[in-house]
Amino acid sequence: MSRAHLFHEPNFSEGDSVLQALYGFIFVVTCDGEVFFASRTVEQYLGFHQSDIIHQSVMELIHSEDREEFKRQLTWNAMLPQEKSNIPLHEVMLPENIQHLHRSFTVRFRCLLDNTSGFITLELNGWIRVLHGQSPRAEDPQLALFATCSPFGPLSLFDIPSRELTFKSKHKMDFSSITMDNSGTWSVLKTI
């Protein structure tokens, strides 16, 4: 059930709100290295428009020294322990082995916003999963890394993209306002 009726903005989307709240962006890369999806918030962190990187090689976005490690992370059996190194993919997908498909690593991405080195270190955290609806005739399913990408290191107030309509407020359970900071009061007054 949509909660859009609770907000005055006619184009309100819960998905957009989640993406704006996420310190980073959502990234889906096939295990062949093609960018399958990037949330539109990728532009706030890398400076590339979403449409510029989708269906492109992820290797073009990654620092040359990080490419081999990134390729290794895209391999579904890269994290298997020695005693399980020969098990097939369908067994890795079982609940008792699924933890071997988790990925958490850092990589340097090309960044148009950073004028010091041209790269930003991002932490990728996600899972190798089946990319449904792709290559239906293939014997092995198409796999992809579904991950969130967040800037690596401590959160700095200077790194957070400024949003002129961002403010803090406290509400009761019925959504009636208790307190609101000055920028919120100003934003509300501008809309009246």
UniProtKB/TrEMBL annotation:
<feature type="domain" description="PAS">
    <location>
        <begin position="11"/>
        <end position="74"/>
    </location>
</feature>
<dbReference type="Pfam" id="PF00989">
    <property type="entry name" value="PAS"/>
</dbReference>
<dbReference type="GO" id="GO:0000976">
    <property type="term" value="F:transcription cis-regulatory region binding"/>
</dbReference>
<keyword id="KW-0804">Transcription</keyword>
<keyword id="KW-0805">Transcription regulation</keyword>
<dbReference type="GO" id="GO:0005634">
    <property type="term" value="C:nucleus"/>
</dbReference>
<dbReference type="GO" id="GO:0034751">
    <property type="term" value="C:aryl hydrocarbon receptor complex"/>
</dbReference>
<dbReference type="InterPro" id="IPR013767">
    <property type="entry name" value="PAS_fold"/>
</dbReference>
<keyword id="KW-0539">Nucleus</keyword>
<keyword id="KW-0238">DNA-binding</keyword>
<dbReference type="GO" id="GO:0006805">
    <property type="term" value="P:xenobiotic metabolic process"/>
</dbReference>
<dbReference type="InterPro" id="IPR000014">
    <property type="entry name" value="PAS"/>
</dbReference>
<dbReference type="InterPro" id="IPR039091">
    <property type="entry name" value="AHR/AHRR"/>
</dbReference>
<protein>
    <recommendedName>
        <fullName>PAS domain-containing protein</fullName>
    </recommendedName>
</protein>
<dbReference type="GO" id="GO:0004879">
    <property type="term" value="F:nuclear receptor activity"/>
</dbReference>
<dbReference type="InterPro" id="IPR035965">
    <property type="entry name" value="PAS-like_dom_sf"/>
</dbReference>
